[in-house]
Amino acid sequence: MTDAADVREVLSADPVMADLLDEHGDLVVEAHDRPFERLVVSIVNQQLSTASAAAIRERLEDRIALTPDGVRDADDEVLRECGLSESKIRYLRNVAAHFPDGVDVDAYAGLPDEDVRADLTSITGVGTWTADMFCIFCLGREDVFPVGDLGVRNGMTALYGHETREEMVEHAAGWAPYRSYATRYVWRAYEG
């Protein structure tokens, strides 16, 4: 795990980010201990408000095991009752088929983010946003800037006045190699 002082040193060069660091303290980016579950959560979260996604996630956690077997064995009606659309049910089943024994994070260890994204986006229902969430929250990758995330874009507009994705990506280049950390601060500022 990266030393917080290193993250602070790089991100503090940006005055807005320096204020966020002071306001929110040290945030972490680390791999999730249940990556398949986290991937399921990312799919549930796609194109939903935070509150709606949380409600669906809670119902799912109460009704099924968030494992490949749990997703495969779940009845469609149970998944619909949890609030999943037909397309999201398909997407979850596609992920369970792609990772029949769960996600082997070691298989991704030496791969660059682009290759991880390519593997994940080959699964119908997993787009770039979900792949970016996987890189940050399942693999603990420290230098991912998910410009496809609405919260990130809204936060960048509110904090920096950037209107285009290109401006946002250009600005975020200054946060390398800790763009995932900076993303967490942007989310905190926007959601907080």
Description:
This protein is mostly helical. The chain has two domains: 4-29 and 144-191, Orthogonal Bundle (Endonuclease Iii, domain 2), CATH 1.10.1670; 35-138, Hypothetical protein, domain 2 (Endonuclease III, domain 1, Orthogonal Bundle). It has helices spanning 4-11, 15-24, 35-45, 50-63, 68-73, 76-81, 86-98, 113-121, 128-138, 150-160, 165-172, 179-191.
Which characteristics define this entry?
single chain, 2 domains, 192 residues, mainly alpha, Endonuclease Iii, domain 2, Endonuclease III, domain 1, 12 helices
Layout: helices, strands, pairs:
Elements: H1 4-11, H2 15-24, H3 35-45, H4 50-63, H5 68-73, H6 76-81, H7 86-98, H8 113-121, H9 128-138, H10 150-160, H11 165-172, H12 179-191
Helix pairs in contact: 2-12, 3-7, 3-9, 8-9, 10-12
